[in-house]
Design goal:
3-stranded antiparallel β-sheet; globular
């Protein structure tokens, strides 16, 4: 049986990391199964153009680590539809070009949920995690699937262990997504793993418009997270180049996603 590390995505990823003088083991330890899950769900950003800086890890564990990375990577701000959003410079330049083209065609590209559409802090990602985690705990306790003691223990776990415990519960059908029907990872990224933390993601109000999606892709922005329809990731390549970056095309709900081919 072939190892996942020999898949198109992992081969392309290791080539991309080599160019950046990094290794897979450094960013995502091979025995850390939660980190590998994060990589395979959100890892498209790690094979992005050399014009941007991907995170040095699959999972940031603190606000300080995120702040240090964001300062080192650099970011720029722009006001779009009244909201100030921040992205890595190359990603912002491409977004503004895409918006200019959309406006010229009588369309628009605007941020969903204001400033949170782009750069987020670790605390932002933790707060958003809790909007799924805490209501789900209350629901499953009420349903008798979790005891009061289990809920108390889950709340007290360190974040890395909490995410691991949630994913294990989901294997038994105790889901933590907003509608409680699927994995929490289809609803929100685990704290410290979001492409928004890497400043390479932008949530678009007009994602339903096929022409808007085309314009975004023409400027290097693609949907890379299944079921997160408003979410676009800056990769900086043309669509025809994405298979060479270890990504595969998937059609979901009439929309095209490019996800790690593992």
């Amino acid at each position: 049986m072939n190892s996942p590390n020999n898949s198109p995505f992992y081969c392309a990823l290791q080539d991309a990391l080599r160019e950046r003088k990094m290794t897979l083991a450094e960013i995502c330890p091979p025995m850390d199964h939660v980190s590998r899950r994060m990589l395979e769900d959100y890892g498209a950003m790690f094979v992005a153009t050399a014009a941007v800086r991907p995170p040095p890890t699959c999972v940031f564990n603190s606000e300080e680590a995120v702040r240090d990375f964001q300062l080192a990577a650099g970011f720029t701000a722009a006001t779009i539809d009244g909201a100030q959003v921040e992205l890595q410079p190359a990603a912002m330049a491409a977004l503004l070009q895409a918006r200019e083209q959309a406006l010229a065609e009588g369309l628009n590209i605007t941020p969903r949920d204001g400033a949170e559409a782009a750069r987020r802090t670790y605390e932002d990602s933790l707060r958003l995690w809790n909007t799924r985690f805490l209501p789900a705990l209350a629901h499953w306790q009420k349903q008798g699937r979790l005891s009061r003691q289990q809920v108390k223990k889950l709340k007290a776990l360190p974040m890395s262990e909490q995410v691991r415990a949630v994913l294990e519960l989901e294997e038994d059908g105790i889901f933590f997504s907003k509608d409680l029907s699927k994995s929490v990872l289809y609803s929100i990224a685990a704290p410290g793993t979001s492409q928004h933390v890497a400043m390479l993601a932008f949530d678009v109000i007009e994602f339903h418009n096929a022409r808007v999606r085309e314009i975004m892709s023409e400027h290097g922005w693609f949907q890379t997270v299944l079921s997160d329809l408003p979410h676009f990731t800056f990769l900086g390549f043309s669509e025809s180049e994405l298979p060479e970056r270890g990504l595969k095309r998937m059609e979901v709900s009439g929309q095209t996603f490019w996800i790690p081919n593992v």
